[in-house]
Amino acid sequence: KTAQTAYEQALATMPANVQALMGLGALALQEGDPAAALGYFQEARQKQPEYVRAVPDEAESTLVSIHLNTALAYERLGRRAEAERELDAARQLAEAAVAKLPTHPQARYQLGLVYRLAGELEKAEAAFAEAARCNASLAGERLRFERRLAQLRGETQP
What we know:
With 158 residues, this protein is mainly α. The chain has 8 helices and no strands. Helix 2 (18-30) packs parallel to helix 4 and helix 6 (105-117) runs antiparallel to helix 7 (121-134). The longest helix is centred in the N-terminal third of the chain and has 21 residues, at 34-54. It is globular and about 35 Å long. The two termini are 13 Å apart.
């Protein structure tokens, strides 16, 4: 409840706070409510253009995250075609970001996330390794991501 309250307060301060909407969506997924999560992720996508005017995002990390989380919500709802569409959109954005910003650690890390969600484990490993070479602090993020992914997919208890 503390995280939920913090996200709600952030939205009260900045209604276009995409990160707060994403946080509320992730909480809904963890609580087993993918329909509510989908609503938050869709609202985040609608508000993303306004958000990036306030918080610049050259690698389009926010939009990639929106697509990835929306794919997870659709996956949990059993809506495979829509999940694939969102994952494809995330892939296109992440690959374009890496092409444009080849040494940007977050762009490489997110490409690893896309590959991991797509089940392309060798590509994911390579992208995560490259992200860690660009920024050593990302080396430990992969394990944290794996735990978080399991939670969001309902494979473990939050």
